[in-house]
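Hey,
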Amino acid sequence: MSANINSIKEEIESYLVSNQEELEQYRQRFIGRKNILASLFAEMKNIPAEQRKEYGQQINELKEAATVKFQELIQSLEDEQSVGQEKHPDLTLPPQPDTLGGIHPLSATRSEIIRIFERIGFNVSEGPEIEDDWHNFTALNFPENHPAREMQDTFFIRKKPDIALRTHTSSVQVRVMESERPPIRTLSPGRVYRNEAISARAHCVFHQVEGLFIDEGVSFADLKQTLYYFVKELFGKQTKVRFRPSYFPFTEPSAEMDITCIICGGEGCNICKHTGWVEIGGAGMVDPQVLENSGIDSKKYSGFAFGMGIERITMLKYQIRDLRLFTENDVRFLRQFSSLT
């Protein structure tokens, strides 16, 4: 009987398979319900009592060896199949496209705005996104009781002293005026934060670009001609511009700038609320007190400032109707701009 066990053990150890059919034959012979080991267990009753323990141990070891060998055969068969697939790929399968990332539409618009203003002498300045009260509010003529200073409008990091996420990039302009002497001609693009409900037309995180020009004899006519040039370069020569009187704490006089709706061509649609005009930003002459706050002689120098939302410009340029699409990282949306440079 011991010779029979050794013979089966050698057969198990030397067993090889090359396909699933041979693997199934092994399973039926050594592991299946009617496997060869079952006949060995049936012989237990014919073994002398003093030898049954040793005999049973030998059968159990043989059964365990058969199970381990089965797992090895499965693995070897899978390895052979995977190697075969590498050597003989399925040429009928469709190719995997080598997709590359593209420039985000906000980044593309930001770069285009910068290029337009650089052509007329503006340079780019940047500043911190976490600002103090002086640069974000006080130096810009925001009074102590102004609503923008309240918690419902501003993300404060520390209330005393007032440290907050900047609500506009005008704070960068203050830093530039403090560190440089006129003439100053700078553009300040960047991310800003306001405590607003997120919707199709508003977000708590968005992007602005603000411009500043300070020199001797700067007038409102210079401001208008600068913005006329920008609008026609960005949206086309046919685009019309209008200015409406407005109020900002840091400019006087102040105006809001509208352009003809590029969705409907000025005929009226739901985007322009059937007026034919869309607001894109605000502008005005820098208040003399803001110049003095920054250490610039307001009797010698004058200047203008303007600001606009990059999201608003991008929505108009590419006819996007939901501002939330810019931050949701929906690949279906982003792929539409893969050709942007």
